[in-house]
Q: What sequence folds into this?
């Protein structure tokens, strides 16, 4: 994993929509006046949702001034969590898990596939495929490692060929069924069941 | 008290202290990087691991509270192995560039790797590399060397008061930076250089200038403001290479302001190194004898003689100058004020900072009157911020601008003081209930027309609630309190400015409208505007080049020591006065510096009590009711990086000013 890619082309300003302003009022009610900083994360999430799945620096500055804290404090949070995107992402947003179990099961090859088909560096959009990719920490699907998350869905038990097929499918807007790509059901053993046989 | 055993030594420690503190009490050295006494505990470097009985794993002692009966071991094999392991991890990504690193020779990592490290590395992969970060003209970064102790991050948030430095990204990619690499704007930012245990943050002006073992180190006193911060001056040859803070918990703890630290390159530039006399509108360099003769000739036919000493002048110079004027010129017109302000000299209480710097932290009510502590006395402002963090309410009369903490502006009319006395505004109740109130009066509220009203009503206000020790005057200049103690406030400031013979000693803030028949002597270390209007220019030594003593704003007398020597033919101020007196066959009563100091102390015994706070004595205080005044306080504009001639001669300070102006334009 590398440091976050921060977009070079930044919008000059950012304002929350009326609807989100109402939501922010509700969020701020949860925290005492002196601890408003706690609302950094929900506000960043709202900003990301409103702005096409990425957070411009102007939004970071706006949130900092809304919560009476400094820019760097919001920036720290936004760069720490992999779920916040600081550069525009594609319509198909691939998040490759590279934490230990996935790494042992070959996530390196999936990353290679991303580099080959989507973009050389993580966080950059491939205009052809309308897609971008990043490396993330554990997504909690270790049993079916290696895996990627594309938008909201998990695609598991990947090999580099399978990953390449999925990525190439973005062009036609084609995505395989979600879940395991090796044909197994859920997270059951790869060959045959070894437990809970009686009730089968 | 809690009883613990450290390496078979039984000791008692305060409840709430940490295992690391207990080990220090027992005299055991614990290596550490992230832990710092003045900052919050982070516990992320893991270097301070010790063994505690009944704990299977080594424990980070900086973050572990002591408990009764704990048995701590700091010298077992387990501890040794743990430290070696931590050190090996820390060094994985640390470059081996000690030979070209400015921190080399005074580096915590170097020393601790030597003492506690395993002595070898098993790591064979590439080290991570991090881009250099821009943090302004004062701080140079080498982020490859960073070990992520986060001392700088905690400092900027907790001490400096502006969270400007932070950690971005995570895990292996973690980096220390400012938001989008903006300049660090705090006036205390230079302290992160001392805090950094490695060479990641180093001083930009000092980069590649010298090695610590080549430097001559002299402990002395700072004169950039009236706080009297304790500093250490490092010199190589005659050049002052850098200024570092010295720990003094009563004054500056272990911080100094950026001006104190970085204005020292001004000592090398713009110096006057030989006497000059002005003939036909042009300056000619002359010998000392010629210059003195020229002065004596021109002073013969003059009627009134005025002397003015500047803001960087020590006590001894002030005393000798006064003696020279009294004996040679028979004149009492000696002053130190470079603007139209007036102090109440009837008692020492009336012109000092009586709360004392050390006790501001404990205040629960602070009223600022016409002062801007952030720029006038950065270290005092840090203490006020500390008080604010523990619940102190700060109010201000006059608008001093951003102070790095929340305060309420009551208004800018000085008549608010009467309202406070007469319970007309809600804040009077807060003041009445306060246990440790402090009222801080700045120079903007001491202009000659309102000074006596402000001082007397503040005293009345505090007398009413029986908290007289909360009376504080915030001086801006290092020589102010000393000069007041020497009685150098003359009755008529205008007469001093307009006297036929005007003798300026290091006096650069005042602008003199020179008459045609006025004869001006300028004596100082640096060439400034006033040296260009003078008829005679005499070179003298700067504050690092002479012995002396200074009184800080609390009234504490501190000795300063000679760490370098003046350039060319420059002499110490008192020597010049002696020469002038001798040439007129006048005896000033001293032949060397020690005699001068002895004479001064015998005349003013309180100036011989070094490093002590003056005792508060209210018996001689007078209280009177002055008529209510209607006057709007406008704060003096302070150009922080340019407040004295040394700072104005410093390239670093000019760079800081430029960047501050540029940043203001961007944000506006």
A:
């Amino acid at each position: 994993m590398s440091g976050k890619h921060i977009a070079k082309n930044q919008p000059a300003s950012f304002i929350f929509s009326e609807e989100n302003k109402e939501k922010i009022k509700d969020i701020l009610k949860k925290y005492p006046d002196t601890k408003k900083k706690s609302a950094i994360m929900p506000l960043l999430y709202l900003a990301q949702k409103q702005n096409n799945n990425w957070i411009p620096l102007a939004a970071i500055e706006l949130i900092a001034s809304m919560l009476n804290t400094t820019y760097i404090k919001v920036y720290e949070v936004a760069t720490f969590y992999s779920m916040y995107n600081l550069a525009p992402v594609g319509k198909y947003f691939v998040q490759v898990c590279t934490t230990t179990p996935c790494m042992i099961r070959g996530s390196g090859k999936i990353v290679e596939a991303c580099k080959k088909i989507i973009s050389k560096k993580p966080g950059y959009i491939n205009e052809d495929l309308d897609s971008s990719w990043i490396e993330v920490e554990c997504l909690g699907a270790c049993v079916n490692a290696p895996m990627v998350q594309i938008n909201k869905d998990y695609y598991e038990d990947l090999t580099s060929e399978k990953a390449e097929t999925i990525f190439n499918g973005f062009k036609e807007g084609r995505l395989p069924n979600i879940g395991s790509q090796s044909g197994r059901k859920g997270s059951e053993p790869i060959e045959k069941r070894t437990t809970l046989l009686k009730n089968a | 008290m809690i009883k613990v055993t450290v390496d078979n030594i039984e000791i008692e420690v305060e409840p709430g202290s940490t295992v690391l503190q207990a080990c220090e009490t027992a005299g055991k050295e614990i290596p550490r990087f992230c832990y710092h006494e003045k900052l919050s505990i982070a516990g992320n470097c893991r270097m301070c691991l010790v063994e505690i009985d009944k704990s299977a794993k080594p424990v980070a002692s900086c973050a572990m509270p002591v408990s009764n009966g704990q048995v701590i071991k700091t010298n077992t094999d387990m501890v040794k192995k743990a430290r070696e392991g931590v050190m090996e991890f820390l060094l994985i990504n640390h470059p081996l560039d000690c030979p070209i690193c400015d921190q080399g020779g005074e580096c915590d990592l170097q020393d601790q790797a030597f003492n506690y490290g395993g002595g070898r590395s098993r790591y064979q992969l590439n080290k991570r590399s991090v881009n250099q970060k821009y943090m302004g003209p004062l701080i140079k970064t080498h982020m490859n060397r960073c070990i992520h102790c986060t001392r700088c991050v905690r400092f900027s948030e907790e001490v400096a008061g502006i969270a400007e430095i932070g950690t971005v990204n995570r895990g292996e990619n973690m980096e220390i930076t400012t938001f989008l690499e903006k300049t660090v704007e705090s006036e205390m930012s230079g302290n992160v250089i001392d805090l950094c245990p490695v060479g990641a943050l180093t001083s930009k002006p000092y980069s590649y200038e010298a090695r610590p073992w080549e430097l001559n180190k002299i402990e002395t006193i700072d004169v950039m403001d009236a706080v009297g911060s304790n500093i250490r001056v490092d010199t190589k040859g005659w050049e002052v290479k850098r200024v570092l803070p010295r720990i003094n918990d009563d004054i500056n703890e272990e911080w100094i302001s950026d001006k104190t630290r970085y204005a020292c390159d001004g000592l090398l530039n713009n110096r006057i190194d030989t006497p000059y006399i002005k003939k036909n509108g042009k300056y000619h360099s002359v010998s000392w004898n010629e210059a003195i003769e020229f002065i004596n000739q021109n002073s013969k036919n003059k009627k009134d003689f005025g002397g003015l000493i500047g803001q960087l002048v020590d006590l001894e110079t002030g005393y000798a100058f006064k003696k020279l004027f009294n004996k040679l010129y028979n004149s009492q017109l000696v002053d130190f004020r470079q603007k139209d302000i007036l102090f109440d000299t009837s008692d020492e209480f009336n012109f000092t900072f009586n709360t004392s710097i050390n006790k501001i932290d404990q205040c629960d009510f602070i009223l600022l009157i016409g002062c801007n502590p952030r720029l006038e006395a950065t270290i005092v402002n840090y203490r006020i911020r500390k008080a604010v963090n523990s619940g102190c309410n700060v109010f201000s009369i006059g608008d001093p601008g951003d102070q790095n903490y929340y305060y309420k502006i009551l208004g800018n009319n000085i008549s608010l003081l009467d309202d406070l006395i007469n319970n007309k505004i809600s804040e009077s109740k807060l003041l009445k209930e306060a246990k440790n109130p402090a009222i801080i009066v700045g120079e903007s509220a001491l202009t000659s027309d309102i000074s006596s009203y402000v001082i007397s009503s503040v005293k009345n206000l505090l007398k009413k609630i029986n908290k007289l020790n909360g009376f504080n005057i915030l001086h801006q200049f290092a020589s102010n309190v000393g000069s007041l103690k020497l009685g150098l406030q003359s009755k008529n400031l205008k007469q001093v400015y307009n006297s036929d013979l005007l003798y300026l000693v290091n006096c650069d803030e005042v602008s003199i409208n020179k008459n045609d028949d006025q004869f001006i002597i300028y004596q100082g270390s640096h060439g400034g505007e006033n040296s260009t209007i003078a008829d005679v220019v005499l070179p003298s030594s700067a504050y690092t080049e002479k012995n002396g003593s200074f009184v800080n704003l609390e009234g504490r007398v501190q000795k300063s020591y000679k760490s370098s020597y003046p350039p060319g033919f420059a002499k110490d101020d008192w020597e010049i006065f002696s020469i002038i007196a001798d040439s007129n066959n006048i005896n000033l009563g001293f032949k060397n510096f020690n005699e001068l100091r002895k004479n001064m102390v015998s005349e003013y015994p309180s100036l011989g009590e070094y490093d002590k706070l003056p005792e508060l004595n209210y018996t001689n205080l007078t209280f009177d009711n002055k008529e209510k005044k209607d006057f709007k306080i406008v704060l003096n504009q302070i150009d922080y990086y340019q407040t004295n001639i040394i700072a104005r001669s410093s390239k670093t300070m000019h760079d800081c000013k430029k960047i501050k102006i540029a940043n203001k334009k961007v944000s506006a």
In short: The two ends of chain A are 42 Å apart (CA to CA). The domain at 18-80 of chain A is CATH 1.10.10.1590 (Arc Repressor Mutant, subunit A). The CA atoms of residues 49 and 55 of chain A lie 9 Å apart.
